[in-house]
Every structure is written in structure tokens, then in C-alpha cells.
Amino acid sequence: MSLLSIDNLQVSYGAICALHGVNLHVDRGEIVALIGSNGAGKTTLLRTISGLLRPRQGEILWSRGESPIPLHNMPPHEIVHLGISHVPEGRQVFANLTVRENLLLGGYTRTHSETAPVMERCFSLFPVLAERRRQKAGTLSGGEQQMLAIGRALMAKPQVLLLDEPSLGLAPKIVGDIFQIIRKINQEGTTVLLVEQNASKALAAAHRAYVLQSGVVSKQGPAAELLKDPEVKKLYLGG
């Protein structure tokens, strides 16, 4: 059984329907990429999974071996407690708080004794954050803020990490660093659902992928196969 299952999900903004019956699943240990053009509904899907939006129809089910738990009417803080953390598009760090304070806020579901080792794990993943732990987050570079946003989400010790456009606005070298870290996080046991405009990077990192077009899943399959798909190459890979 999949860790996260989405069935016939429909989401609207007023009269505008953003998702039209989306079906997908994420299995334990995977990196699953979700690619598509701007406005395809990718961010809407992540925001619905994390409880920030409510679907008009459909189900989001969470399963860790017991009976599936419906997430689609659950508040965001309860979803975090279950083991799902969301790194939003645009990073959205708390600019006036220090790096350490941002990380502590991410670990609000954990006791003090639990947060210390997780914070050290974040510092080992992102050594630059350890160096800047007392620095205000608003003074960090874009790449450092993205690392902080990922670290903050990891402080809750999620089983599934939802990543929304982690490479957005970053220099190519920093993008490469971020994707190396995403792979390492996954190798250490965290399942990842990745929304990414840089389709070639996303498909190279992922095990499986879905293509979202105008709120509908148009293609799905092993990421390596979608990298070779002529239509995907033409629309999203510059070829």
C-alpha cells in the first residue's frame, strides 16, 4: 500500500477549477517528481496535501501500515504531526528571526531533547547554516534561505517531504547542491514529493514522475522513461 494516495482530487479557487480529478500515489522511500508548466496546478496539489486548501471532491489518504487516514479534511498542524512537512515555493523563512530560531519553529512538534539531534542533522546537511546559526534569516543568500527552508521542514522529522520549486531563482551551482541534498535526504529514509520547474533536474533525481497539464495528469511513469519521452522533451526539456 502506498504511503500517500490521492484519488480523484478536485480543487477550485472560487469558480476556477485548478485540479480536475487528479490521481497519484507516493510509495515509501521514493522521490516522486511532479512537472508541468506554470499554472498547471502543481503548487495547488501540494497545498491541498498539507491542508492549506480544501478539495471540492476526492480523497487524500495517508497509510503507515494501519488503516488509511483521510487527510483531506484535516488541519495543517495535525498533518505535520502525522509526518508530512511542506517546503513552500519562495522559501518563506522568518526574515527577522535567526537561523536557529527558524529551525526551532520547524521542530515545534518535538520535545527539546528531540530537537537537539535533529538540528545537528540539519547542520551536518547544511554546514553553512551551522556557521550562520545566529544570523537573521533575511540576511542570507537565496540559496542559503532555501537550505534553511528545507532544514526547518526536516526539524519535524517527516516521513514525507513536500518540496515546492526548490531551485527557483537560484544560480546553477546552488541548484546542483540543492539536488544533491535532496537525494541524500531521500537516501537517509525520507520520502520526497517534488514539484519542480527544472524538469530535467527533477526527472534525473526522481524514481517516478507525473506530468500535470491544466490540472490533469497527462503522463506518468518511471522518471528515466519520461526523460526520453519525445513529448516531454519537446514541452519541458528544451528539445
Walkthrough of the structure:
The chain has 10 helices and 10 strands. The protein is of the alpha/beta class. The chain has a single domain, classed as 3-Layer(aba) Sandwich (Rossmann fold). Helix 3 packs parallel to helix 6. It is globular, with a radius of gyration of 17 Å. The model has no long low-confidence stretch (mean pLDDT 93).
Mean pLDDT: 93
Largest sheet, spatial ordering of strands? 6-7-8-3-9-10
What integer value in Å does the Rg equal? 17 Å
CATH class: Alpha Beta
CATH superfamily: P-loop containing nucleotide triphosphate hydrolases
CATH architecture: 3-Layer(aba) Sandwich
The amount of helix comes to: 25-40%
Distance between the termini: 36 Å
Spell out the helices and strands N to C: EEEHEEHEHHHHEHEHEEHH
- Strand runs, count: 10
Compact overview of the structure:
By secondary structure, the protein is an alpha/beta fold. The protein has helices at residues 42-49, 76-82, 99-106, 112-125, 127-131, 142-154, 172-187, 199-205, 223-228, 230-236, and strands spanning 4-13, 16-26, 31-35, 57-62, 69-70, 84-87, 160-164, 191-195, 208-213, 216-222.
